[in-house]
Amino acid sequence: MTGRSSRVIVDLDAIRHNVTRLARVSAPARVMVVVKANGYGHGAVKVAEAALEAGAHGLCVALVQEGVELRRAGIEAPILVLSEQPRDQVGELVSHGLIATAYSVAFIDALADEARRRDVVGHEVHLKVDTGMNRVGARPDAAVELGGRVLARSPQLSLGGVFTHLACADDVSSPVTAEQIRRFDVVIDDLRRAGVDPGWLHIANSAGAIAHPDSRRDMVRVGIAMYGISPDPSMDEVCSDLRPALSLVSRVSFVKTVNAGEAISYGHRHRFERTTNVATVPIGYADGVPRRLSSVGGAVLIGGRPRPIVGVVTMDQLMVDMGDDRCAVGDEVVLIGRQGDQQITANDWGTSLGTIGYEIVCALSARLRRDYPGAIAPDDSQ
């Protein structure tokens, strides 16, 4: 290994395994995998390729530039952009054959006008209906008008699907999911009565695909579960067949003995009650390790044992209390992942910090190299 020791390791076999399992659970629905935000920090291109190899039907992204990155990498599978995009992005959306999401007449018209300028016929559009998330999407009572507008802008546009997004699917006891599904079904009935073929229907996110069979319809959109992270710690048991794909690792860069009574790091927020061996690890909050991780009991694995982080996490480094145990420069440090029979997960960090595993992995910065054991070469673009 050359270069910086702090890095993200992504197990593409785990991605393939998880896609296969999720496809089996969701069958006969097709699986669209979500690779926005650089594949939730895992590396969008490599993850997309692995997921497609495992049988995923297509990909979902948040931004046009995310879809363009995949196209430029040679990926030809369907790519759905999950929200309406700024008008100055519509040209690239059309030219790269990205499936558009629409929930306004103005966007449908802008898309159709751009398709006409480029002599494109049948550019695929999916309508997004807001059934309770109250973020983006058309009101249910506007769906027929929008569906009709897409048909009216034929031959430039074609209606390929209708979807919604679940707000509370990770809470299996919440009545909200059933109500959202009911509202969606009313919309689909209204469209069909109006003579509008809705195309592919999709409701389920990861939690929906796993825990709410009624939400599986023609397609499911799986994100966090594909990466082997349960949508919520309460779902860990039902997600036990999934394999975490990401590890965050480093190596000890410096070791010293700190005497009893001495303090460490900025603000001297931690003072040692006894003489202690301290290991420095070259990774910090600029890499995505939360600065306050030490204050909520954060630890790393060294020598197969959890070792507490002490003092505040600094921009480029953090310090670890080894107690009486010794370690050496170059010893492996696991921040997220497995070492021996011990494991630290992204959800462990999330629970400690009052957030979710999604935020933890998405926050891992671009200066951490992504390595893909077994792949042809590391992805140095990340």
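The record above closes out task 2.4. Task 2.5 opens with a second protein, given below.
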Amino acid sequence: MGFQVEIPEQPKRIISLVPSQTELLFDLGLEDRVAGITKFCIHPAEQIKNKPKIGGTKNFNFEEIAALKPDMIIGNKEENYQVGILQLKENYTVWMSDISNLVEATEMIRQIGVITNTFKPAQKIIHQILTGFQDLNYPDKIPAAYFIWREPFMSVGQDTFIHQMLDLSGFANVFADYNRYPEITPEQLQAAQPAVILLSSEPYPFKEKHLPELKNLCPNALIKLVDGEMFSWYGSRLQYAGAYFQELRKAITSAL
């Protein structure tokens, strides 16, 4: 989805198509310049309540977008759909991120800071993120399976942002030989022999009731519910991820 765009000198009516980048805009102090968001944008909860919704991340309401008269639209290659983005590009300035690791995440934050003339707040957020991650040092990785979906079970491959978050937080992804988001059979899970199974809160909302199903498949594995936002949101929420990962790793190490 690579294309060059001319950015307005200081965009004043921004539509965000990605939840984690929506939160970033608010944390940069741009609440008054956010013209629209998706129905999946949930943070910050109070400020987003009255913002117009333009559909989902993969099904835009083009009439609503037109009515909002945006001078800039911010999306993401993975979270949005190419057909919709190309249609938007015909009429609007569309800026896209493409993120698979922490370096690319902080660079996205820096670029949005430059584009929106909020460079100093962006640098502060980046500093807080990197400070939180610098204390993560786990040479002994715990073999782990991370699931994002059920029926079928879906995990994460080596080329995903979540994979790097697993690595940085001290876990060895047992499905690292796969790419993207592979479907995993019960037999594949059993063969992988994870010491830990991490069940994400999103996109599938895993709950306590799902633990016995996995325990039956892998009776020797520790099964734990985790905050999916910490593993997959690559905006300003990363400020809290380092501390979360430290506590998670500590709790799991104690339980094994």
